[in-house]
Write a structure and sequence with these properties.
Two copies of one chain form a homodimer. The first copy, chain A, has helices at residues 6-33, 37-49, 54-61, 65-77, 103-121, 125-151, and strands at residues 51-53, 81-85, 93-97. Chain A is mainly alpha-helical. Chain A has a three-stranded antiparallel beta sheet. In chain A, strand 2 and strand 3 (93-97) form a beta hairpin. The model of chain A has no long low-confidence stretch (mean pLDDT 92). Chains A and B meet through helix 1, helix 2, helix 5 and helix 6 of A and helix 1, helix 2, helix 5 and helix 6 of B. The structure holds a DNA duplex.
DNA sequence: GTTAATATCTGCATTGAAGCAGATAATGAA
DNA sequence: TTCATTATCTGCTTCAATGCAGATATTAAC
């Protein structure tokens, strides 16, 4: 975050703290729910994608397929997730989030959601567009960084 | 992220994916370094604060003091951290990051840093100001959410 | 100076996450 | 059909992270 551009220096002040807070929030949420951070991440991925195969979950989490089976077991036992056999290829198992049951998960995430909504509401449309642009580009940037990190093992 | 304001709808599309990517990045980084997510978070907190007492680390991580002692042990054994007795109160142990040693940690974080710098560089000063404002306010929002989540146990 | 409170550490035990290797089942190719 | 490949699961084992309760050392209060 070091830069010769003075406007970027402002980011150097606030951005690391912001990232740290996001990470902490993820950890604390997992703690509060009594699950591991990986399990919580998997739930997030499922919420975004709707359904993922066991293998896709393994790739995303960076776990072996065996460990992923156990991860799905844990989520299933909590009623957060359901296994569905893929009709296209019956070797595959589709995992999908169970909607109405995830009350505790929603509850755990709601304080952050509420606080963030208040912040977003204070920006005007042009500013929201800037933020949305940033989020849209930062997400793949982080994912690319993950791939790069994983390659270097 | 539901909202009647149409400009906020754009955030609902991108923001959850963004957060998920950030969380994934934290997990993958910890995996790559062969440490737990909590340990990595602690390193981040130390990088930001310079030094923290063992007790402060316990509060931040949400661990018991005993578990925090072990966390510090792990970081110390890796040479990432140093224990310093607080001269003001010799019961306390100050923990501080060891600078030049954390090469692997820096290396693991550098892909994300590089990618993000490229993104930030594409915004003009006004836009950077918007982003900086968001980061500055979102960080305490997340921390407040963490406290709220923890209270509800 | 004695007692209480605070900060950290230690021993012990538990639990859970994960890897690995082999088993099972389904698909695809020859 | 037969063989190879792919996707998931299971049994077994290991290791790390954590909690808890008690020990120690330091400070603060009376």
């Amino acid at each position: 975050m070091e830069s010769s551009r003075p406007d970027l220096a402002a980011l150097g002040e606030v951005y690391p703290r912001y990232l740290n807070a996001v990470v902490l929030h993820g950890l604390a949420t997992a703690q509060a729910l009594g699950m591991g951070p990986t399990d919580l991440y998997a739930m997030g991925a499922l919420a975004l994608e709707g359904r993922l195969t066991s293998g896709e979950l393994a790739v995303r989490t960076g776990l072996t397929t065996g460990a992923t089976t156990r991860l799905i077991d844990r989520l299933e036992q909590r009623g957060l997730v359901r296994r569905v056999l893929d009709p296209e290829d019956r070797r595959r198992v589709l995992v999908e989030a169970v909607e109405s049951d995830g009350v505790d998960l929603d509850a755990a995430l709601s304080p952050a959601r509420r606080n963030l909504e208040a912040i977003f509401a204070s920006f005007d449309p042009d500013q929201i567009a800037v933020l949305a642009d940033y989020f849209a580009r930062a997400a793949p940037a982080f994912r690319a960084a993950v791939e790069e990190i994983r390659k270097g093992e």
